[in-house]
Amino acid sequence: MADEGQVAKLERHLGLLREEYVKLQNKLVEMEHKYSIAKASAGQGEENSFVSRLLKTVADLYDKDLYSDITVSFGGQKIKAHKFVLAARSDHWCSRDLNEVTELELSDVSVDVGLTLMKWVYTDKAQIPKEESFLINLVHASNKYRLKDLRLRCEKILMSSVTVSNCIKFYQTAEDIGAKELQKYCAEIISNHWHDLKTEDFVGISAPLLYEMFKSKSTYPLHLTIRHHREDVLFLFLIEFNSQLPGKLNEVDPTTGEVPLHIALSEKLDSIARTLVGHGCDVDMVDSSGNCLLHKAISHGDEFSSTFLIKNGARVSAANHAEKVTPLHLTASYRPWMAGSASSPAGANHMTSAEGMARIASLLIDKGANTDAQDLAGRTPLHRAIEAKNDKVMNILLNRSKLNLELRDKQGRVPLWLALSCDSFDSMDEESLAAKLVKHGASADAVNTVTGDSLLH
């Protein structure tokens, strides 16, 4: 009995092994079949194998009357085709069932693209030139008719043409034609060379695509948007964050310390700046030192920014925290630099002239700036103009406003004292700083409250 049970076990094991053997045989046949197809597709199969003969037969049918049951047209040219070949390649040739049509028009496909596409459909081979516009059109057609293998082949050819200078253009192109692999490749280049890209590189990219790119690259996409002069992207930002305005417009990028309005004005983007102000951004935004945008603009000799801010409601008498300096103090202290001189500060070539700063001073006075404001050292704008020998602003102060010419700084000096000590005084010169001050009512009997000295002393 024990021997019979052992035999039964062995027979069951043998049965299982037979079943497994049959499965492996079937898998082998399937693998050999796939291998034959792969070799035949690569042109390496045996000439008399079924797959090789089938592929050769299909290739020989290209634009032949034999078995033809449909005509394919593109760009004014027609070729004879076969529904079974087209159906084997794609199910998306047209909106109707392919069996119901005898003519197929490939719309928006040129003759060159159409011939290359149909040659590939029949032979799996094609001479594809590396000309950019041709490849783009071929990818577009391949994507439209769902010819995935042809699309991927074209995308790989296009990838060889992508550089840092054109990666943005190709990224947009890939989006337009549905070339996902090309788009992914361009995205990697963009990411690796993000800081090398210039404003002009972004010109051709659509607003929605660029907005998504900016959001993926920075926590502050609005700053990037303005830096690259894209007002269309700005509107997308305003729509998305409408419920968070104006707060979103006043965010400071900690890496640069800049707010959006400062960037817009620095780039002289008047329309973008007006849009920001129109949506409530703070024109008096201050930094940690209490310097507002107007302080910074004047300090940098930026007449465009200064004029814009003054005309758009910036506080013209705002004093900073550290020195109690107002915008008018800064115009008075301004020294126009000779472009290219050794002592010129960085950016001197872009700084306004003495006449330009005088125009800013005049505009500040028009808007009600306090002409007698004193800084931490007690100096009025007139004191500072005299120290800087800024005749243009000093004349504006004397002629455009009623000044208190007897205000003293912390050293007890009135403006006339400064004029006599800073100017190469000539008692006969009626155009000297001192003469102008006396002409406008400065007292020659002023006494220094610190030393007790008079001008005569």
| Spatial arrangement of strands, main beta sheet | 2-1-3
**CATH fold node name of the largest domain:** Serine Threonine Protein Phosphatase 5, Tetratricopeptide repeat
Overall structural class, as computed from helix and strand content, comes to: mainly alpha
Output the CATH homologous superfamily of the largest domain. Ankyrin repeat-containing domain
- The total beta strand count reads 3
Helix content: 40-55%
N-end to C-end Cα span: 142 Å
| Silhouette | elongated
Low-confidence stretches: 338-342
Architecture per CATH nomenclature, i.e. the level-2 architecture of the largest domain = Alpha Horseshoe
Topology pattern, helix = H, strand = E: HHEEHEHHHHHHHHHHHHHHHHHH
Number of H- or I-type helical stretches:
21
- Average pLDDT metric: 87
Q: What oligomeric state do these chains adopt? A: single chain
InterPro entries: ANFY1_BTB_POZ (IPR049765), ANKFY1_BACK (IPR049763), Ankyrin_rpt (IPR002110), Ankyrin_rpt-contain_sf (IPR036770), BTB/POZ_dom (IPR000210), NF-kappa-B_inhibitor (IPR051070), SKP1/BTB/POZ_sf (IPR011333)
Coiled coil: 7-34
Protein name: BTB domain-containing protein
Organism: Nematostella vectensis (Starlet sea anemone)
Features:
Potassium Channel Kv1.1, Chain A; 21 helices; elongated
Explain this structure to me?
Pfam families: Ank_2, BTB. With 457 residues, the chain is mainly alpha-helical. The protein folds into 4 domains: 15-61, no CATH class; 67-161, Potassium Channel Kv1.1, Chain A (2-Layer Sandwich); 206-282, Serine Threonine Protein Phosphatase 5, Tetratricopeptide repeat; 283-336 and 350-456, Serine Threonine Protein Phosphatase 5, Tetratricopeptide repeat, CATH 1.25.40.20. 51% of the residues lie in helices and 3% in strands. It has 21 helices and 3 strands. The chain has a 3-stranded mixed sheet. Strand 1 and strand 2 form a beta hairpin. Helix 5 runs antiparallel to helix 6 (148-159), helix 6 runs parallel beside helix 8 and helix 20 packs antiparallel against helix 21.
